[in-house]
Amino acid sequence: MPNDFSDLRRAVAIEDYACADDVAALLVAPAATVAQLFAAEPAAPRRTMVEPMAAMLLAVVDTLPGNVFAKDRAGRYIVANAQTEVALGAPRERLLGRTDLDLLGDAVEATRLREADQRVMASGVAESLEEVVTLADGSVVTWLSTKAPLRDATGAVIGIIGFSVDISERKTAERARARIEAQLGAVLDALPVGIIIADADGRIVRDNAASRELWGMPPETASWRDYGEWIGYRPTGERIGAAEWAMARALRDGDTVRGELVECQRFGSGERRRYLNNAAPVRDAAGAIIGGVVAALDVTDGLPAGLGGAA
Length: 311
Description:
- This protein is 38% helix and 27% strand.
- By secondary structure, it is α+β, with helices and mostly antiparallel strands.
- It is elongated, with a radius of gyration of 30 Å.
């Protein structure tokens, strides 16, 4: 085994883990059989039959991605595949028969892993959870683990069987995305112009404080067809239909709208306000419309100083 396991861990990390439970159900079956064979401690006459079968199944388990492992009721590893060796930074002979408390440097983390194992054994029900672990080389990883009770031939729970994938990079990306979202929200709320962002169907995915000040709290809007619930009028007094809103035109026809005067009726209060509506489609690299954005400048009390006359 190599001394530095960090590159190997990254190589086997699963980027998209939405189907991890299904993957785990498929992958742990041979490992469970191996664990049962080892845990059963067959009598000598049966060993000649059991050991070759266990070796064959263990070879299968060693080819599987992610950490596949089994522990007895005391928390001792009785099966550990090659990727578990990589993850824990130790060869199999140092893993088997030892507990997480023996193998991990952080007693609190080891205890947390043990508590999850005991919960699964007590309930008899499989469980998926995220587990943060500090490994032997000092790196901190997040595992998405699926654990299930390991049963003997009579159905009695004799331990746990588990499958874990390293989702550290995904969690880092999620935290970075959350920071960017928070920063974007702060920027949008600081703007004096109302901003509404919609996806390709017209579902409103974000607005800002100025937009809510203009419109009040809008209803759930899942499609541009729902825009008929937004009450607005042209300067002629004509009611604006769902398909005629600037956002709908941007999404459906790719129109860019600038300085369109609208009188709206605020949700909740019915107060009338006037604003200049601007809209544009958002396109992907191929030019397909993937959303739209509206910028609304409230001119109820006249244009803000420095903006000049109406567009």
